[in-house]
Amino acid sequence: MKIKLLFSLLIASFVCFAQNQVNSFYSANGFVATAVTSATAPVQGNGGANQTWSFSGFVPLGTATYTNVAPTSTESTTYPGTNTVIVTTSVQGTTTTEGRMFTKNNAGTVSITGLNSSGITINCNGGTNGSGNATLGAFPMVYPFSNTDSVVSGTYNYGTNSGTFSGSLVTTVDAYGTLNLPDYGYTGQVTRLKTVLSVTLYVSIFPVGTASQTTYAYYDPNDSTNNFKFRSINTIVQASAAGINQNDTTYEIGNIPILAVANTTLQSVWIQNPVQGAIEINTSDNIENANISIVDMLGKTIYQIKNQTLNGTIEIPVSLTRGMYLLAIESEKGKIIRKIIKD
User: Fold this and answer.
1) Got the DSSP string for 176-233?
2) Do 137 and 125 form a contact (C-beta atoms < 8 A)?
3) Coil, strand or helix: which one is 73?
4) What is the pLDDT of residues 166-200, one digit of tens each?
5) What is the reported pTM?
């Protein structure tokens, strides 16, 4: 009886672990995520078991498409050991950019060998035999998992600045629970992967600043595509001697990219673009108790009004500078988002 009970407990523990794991570092080829912004930063929490995360209020900015390719011969020489390159193609409005993350996958153990993105090149080639690579650990990773690589090192180029760096990468599977994305119609059980990269920047032998990047990525262990459901990346670079003081956060929705749920009444709303003077909201239907907000491309809410009745044409008394904005209308009937272009 004792042996049977112990065997049952071991099986139960294994099933629990298998349900709370991150299966792979690589998403499916062609995976498309929605880049979003928010006026209020999502509360990620400290981690742990049986958590609940509810993230809402996002405004879409564009898309990011992920593909996994083999390195070119030049890339294999520049980033030794690389066997998989994660290519990110980002589209926001009429602007398209590409980023390349170079990785080494050795029997499931994944290391980052380098990064080439807009204005930034990082080569984790410090030390010998790949010892400077930023190693995450072996996948699948099961909660609670933790790995610290304290010998990350190499070279960097950031704009007109270049030098060497050294520091650490801490990888944890630090939480699991329920993720709610009400604007995108998603609720599911997820496991969270957290990475924290912290390095000191040098020019010659002199430290000139620091850089850190903290990533939270939420995965459904039962999703065979291994596409994240939500991800946030916070990057901080401080190098006063070079005039660098950067603190940026990006958010991505990896679920079905729909702009909330709207019925035919809200879909009747239209806005004349480009906007010359005042913003005119037009609708052929009667929409009551509508909340209206306008957000710029940095996620800042520049206009907000509540409990409005829309019927015909109304003017929004806000002066905009040249650029693109997003106007959101929300009522008990749903929510829509319309793009505004100001000449």
Assistant:
1) EEEEEEGGGTEEEEEEEEEEEEEEEEEETTEEEEEEEEEEEEEE-TT-TT---SEEEE
2) no
3) helix
4) 999 999 999 999 999 887 778 899 999 999 999 99
5) 0.72
